[in-house]
Amino acid sequence: MRRLDSGLTFVEILMAVVVLSVLLVPLVTLMTTGFRDTQATIDEVQGANLAGELVEQLDALPFSALPPEGPASGVTLSTQSGSLADGAETVPGSGFRFHLSALPPTFSRELSVRRVGSTRREAVVTIRWTLNGFPRALTMKRVLVKDAILPTM
Hints:
The protein is of the alpha+beta class. The protein is 33% helix and 27% strand. The protein has one domain (10-145).
């Protein structure tokens, strides 16, 4: 009588597991890196949108209603003090209000205005957040001009 040996040996199974591991580890690493980079991009786009929202509202204000010059006069608006976090901050001395989107938990928003000559002010909007424990920031600057008249064609 002849005995047929069929099936896999332990060594063959072990080699198959090693080969699969060598092939799958880079694939899993690539996916993890992709997810992390996607989240970083989402946060950067969200930061740009939050900064753009505030800059657009500054553009809509009359020049006389712009916040006076920044940090030295105490007019820097910041979510650290809660002023730009609630979504409806009154512009100091003007009666105008910013209506802003709520910030995600790890984000903060800051506005600083400084005088650049007699007819211009520079507004600097800074958005800060943390991603995987690392601080990130995005800054958007806009020069606002008093009574700017665009040439007509």
